[in-house]
């Protein structure tokens, strides 16, 4: 999942976070895709990933918050990290950046995939990777979507690019020990969000692997324990 909102600036402008440099130098989003994707892909057996964007205006003038980066004529899956990179670069050539930035649509889309897998008794656990500049409009809707998704085999990893104030992302991460609470008063079953600011990684404060895996194992274990799921041949938890 890649953010394509107008808040990033025109990708033809060198000051944009999504500027495509003719020299081949990676922009902030491409750096995040490569650095994060190269770690995440080893946890996927077939190395095929759905690639979506949000905040993109298509050729018919509509704005999508769950845009298929692979093109309308193809499925939404791409192969390995290079496939994500190619789909991202293609989308910037064919999709205009737009606003506002909404997370709830893509969280619900990932939750739907996880829910379908669960209904089919498929032993899969999903990770939704969101790369964003942190300018979020639907905070309440996003919290509601995350609370709904907290019952599902799903974790959400948010990678922040740029130097925006990421307080909203830190709230979603819920590292203060308080689980997210929806607008109806429902408390999340478990914490499913991990937020990683790329500026901390690039400053050497934390490694990519450490940032990615710090909370994911615990989130996975909290899910399987809640479902009384045990690995084949393992003693009961």
Automatic annotation (TrEMBL):
One of the record's GO cellular component terms: plasma membrane
Xref: InterPro entries: Copine, Copine_C, vWFA_dom_sf
SUPFAM superfamilies: vWA-like (SSF53300)
Molecular function (Gene Ontology), one example: calcium-dependent phospholipid binding
Pfam families with a match to the protein in the record: Copine
Transmembrane segments: none
GO biological process: cellular response to calcium ion
Domain called Copine C-terminal: residue spans: 16-231
Superkingdom assignment: Eukaryota
Protein name according to UniProt: Copine C-terminal domain-containing protein
Organism listed in the record: Capsella rubella
